[in-house]
Specification:
The protein is mostly beta strands and 246 residues long. It is 14% helix and 37% strand. Strands 1, 2, 3, 4, 5, 6, 7, 8, 9, 10, 11, 12, 13 and 14 form a 14-stranded antiparallel β-sheet that branches. A hairpin with a 2-residue loop joins strand 3 (58-61) and strand 4 (64-71). It starts with a helix and ends with a strand.
Length: 246
């Protein structure tokens, strides 16, 4: 009898352990779905873009709404557009719509370009928002070349000596469904503040940004700032990944 009691006890403990493992392994996938915005569903002609000139005011991919305001008098926009323009060499009108790495993240075609003329914002369509996990960021060609060489309205970072402590920064702020700030993050897209000038940099690749510290948000807002008032206020975004909870 003792032998059978021990066997039953072992089996009970084993089943309990397996149940706990099963519940733990299923916990995440049972409560959310992954939503990735990579802009590849949008059809564009080669070397072209959608800039909001048709006045929709936004575009949607998955659970994410990218807000856009178009200004016909200045032929520009604020917020997000999507593009597949490849221009890495010239500071011209076309380079406004181009990512400096030439193309999207992981050699994809499409990506988003943001311009700050007013608020830059992404909202999440589910009533409970989304839990952002990561995204890829880089400079636009127009901004990167302006920083590197300067032009009529913007200085060359570092100045003539190379010692000027210039910087170009993106601030990301997350807001909950109750419009409470959940987190804020600064990302330097160019930084010339180092004592050793060889450490100065302009981001020229698609950098991965960890967003797990933002928790569940209803919106993300983006603000660009610079040590030089003339720096063109653009950045590029791709592969925004998040969790939509059931």
């Amino acid at each position: 009898m003792l032998f059978f009691y021990i066997i039953m006890k072992v089996n009970t403990l084993l089943l309990s352990a397996l149940f706990i493992i099963f519940m733990s392994s299923c916990k995440d996938e049972d409560t959310f779905k992954t939503d990735v915005s990579d802009f590849e569903e949008f059809e564009l002609n080669e070397n072209s873009y959608w800039d909001g000139s048709s006045n929709e005011g936004f575009f949607i991919e998955g659970n994410k709404t990218y807000h856009n305001t178009y200004y016909p008098d200045w032929n520009t926009w604020s917020g997000f557009i999507y593009s597949n323009v490849q221009e890495i060499y010239y500071l011209n009108t076309n380079s406004i719509y181009a990512a400096f790495p030439s193309g999207g993240a992981d050699e994809s075609e499409n990506y988003a370009v943001a311009h700050q003329f007013a608020k830059i914002m992404i909202t999440f369509n589910d009533e409970n928002g989304e839990e952002p996990r990561s995204m890829r960021l880089t400079n636009s060609t127009y901004t990167a070349l302006s920083i590197k060489y300067g032009y009529a309205y913007a200085k060359k970072f570092g100045g003539r000596s190379g010692d000027d402590p210039d910087w170009f920064k993106l601030t990301i702020t997350g807001f909950s469904v109750n419009n409470v700030i959940t987190n804020q993050m600064d990302i330097f897209l160019a930084d010339y503040r180092f004592e050793d000038n060889s450490q100065d940099y302009i981001i020229d690749k698609w950098e991965n940004v960890d967003l797990t510290g933002f928790g569940k948000v209803k919106s993300l807002e983006f603000e660009l700032s610079s040590s030089d008032a003339g720096t063109p206020l653009y950045f590029c975004l791709d592969n925004l990944k998040g969790r939509v909870h059931y």
